[in-house]
Amino acid sequence: MKAVILMSTFNGESFLDAQMKSILSQEGIDELFVYIRDDGSTDNTINMIKSYQLQHKNIFLDEGSNIGPCASFFQLLKYAKTLDAADIYLFSDQDDLWLPKKIEHSYAALKKMDVPTLYSSSLNIVDKKLNALGTYQHRQSKALFDPIFINSVTGCSSAWNYEFLKLVQIPRDLSNILMHDWWLYLTAMYLGRFHYDQNSSILYRQHGGNVIGIQSFWRKLTMLIKSSGIGSMLRIKQFLIFATEYRKDLIKIDSFKFLNNSFNENETNLFKL
């Protein structure tokens, strides 16, 4: 099995070493490649990565400017699309800890699918010292338009096959994209397949420095919802961008045939919410 890991780092010196060790010690992997984009770190993160590069020829580093986690992961996705095909692709945060069979377990689920598929799982929540805090499971979408308002994927637990990677379109405009994992979720729910695993193979570390964590995510989401409906507006804008990128594919689906007329009548007004 050939696995490609896409990691974005930013001032991650406190926990990066443990995460790198957990990735490099994954079981059941024939070929493992780790592509890291640093998002403008000012601490010792880059030196730590370069130290790992001296020991491992399968680690690659792009020293970038600070553009934020969403754009940084999209840069990694864009680069992944230029690489030779792999059996499985995974996002990684810098501060979690992967259990030894995380990749193998994710691949076992994807291997059963012969269509473009995105995988995600529940999370074992831990504090900064890896003490257990509980388990987090996403709410699953039930209705056709649920994915517009509900994201059931956490990027650090996600994985996908080569067929799904080919399906993914990189947004030309990221200004209204809420998060990279939500974009993949929309793609999977409307144009591919989504597999949610109730079992977790990741220790999802919560600490004061989380860029996006369970607490910070829900706090920000609650603030958006309370801010005069702006939360729903942002979600709808994100979907409209998604619909634009995937227009040719979506209008083939009965439930979305209305989009063709909507775009033809007044495409520019779709983004004036």
What does this structure look like?
It is a single chain. A 7-stranded mixed beta sheet has the order 3-2-1-4-9-6-10, with helices on both faces. It has 273 residues and is α/β, with parallel strands linked by helices. The termini are far apart. It contains 11 helices and 11 strands. Strand 1, helix 1 and strand 2 form a beta-alpha-beta unit.
Distinctive features:
4-stranded mixed sheet, 11 strands, 273 residues, alpha/beta, single chain
The best one-word shape is globular
The chain-level mean pLDDT equals 89
Oligomer: single chain
Low-confidence stretches: 268-273
What is the percentage of strand-forming residues? 15-25%
The main sheet orders its strands as 3-2-1-4-9-6-10
What count of helical segments does DSSP give? 11
Note the run of SSEs as H and E: EHEHEHEEHEEEHEHHEEHHHH
| Number of DSSP strand runs | 11
Instruction: Tell me the distance between the termini.
Output: 45 Å
> Can you give the helix content as a percent range?
25-40%
Cα radius of gyration in angstroms:
19 Å
Report the sheet with the most strands, covering strand number, pairing sense and barrel closure.
Answer: 7 strands, mixed
> Which structural class should the secondary elements be placed in?
alpha/beta
